[in-house]
Amino acid sequence: MITICLLRHGETAYNADGNKYCGRTDIPLTEKGLSQAKRMQELLKDVIFDQIFCSPLQRAKNTAEIASGTPEKVQVDERLIEVDFGQWEGKRSEDFIAEDPNSWYNWLSDPGSFEAGRTGENASQVINRLDNFYSELLDKYDGQTILVVGHNGVNRFFMAHQLGMPLKNYRRIVQENSALTMVTLDKHNGFNLLKLNA
């Protein structure tokens, strides 16, 4: 079994500006985002992480470095990068829905089959890379405590999939910026959600 502290990065300007879809756009944390990461460092100060992994995007990497208090241990893993949102990138949902309502309807009804923003990833592709990542953690680091810093989309898809939810319901899981989610993964007993948004 592995214990995972699963974080979403701290706030970015896109989060603050009407929650624009950030996806692969590599923007930094805001001052509030930095404060959120520092709050998480205080919350986690007594936790010793055996391994620390993050998305390659700077908002996740910076959150991991600050929240862990051990930036030298942070390992970047491409499989944790945010969903590719295609033509929705950098836009608010109300704007891209008005431009292309069918694309949004298809994504909401079956994200496993339809690409986000027509040219991005579908949820099945996201789950495949996340399954690969987390299976590798189980194989290599059994018994360890691991910090993983990712993004809103990938983290929610991972949890929805592990909880046996239809992927179209992933948006029903809310993960706040730089809030603590704790889970365990076990080869025999599967996935358990211990805390959400602490």
TrEMBL record:
GO terms for cellular component: cytoplasm. Gene3D superfamilies: Phosphoglycerate mutase-like. InterPro entries: His_Pase_superF_clade-1, His_PPase_superfam, PG/BPGM_mutase_AS, PGM_Phosphatase. It comes from the Bacteria. Substrate binds at residues 8-15, 59. Signal peptide: none annotated. GO terms for molecular function: phosphatase activity. The active site is at 9 (tele-phosphohistidine intermediate), 82 (proton donor/acceptor). This is Alpha-ribazole phosphatase.
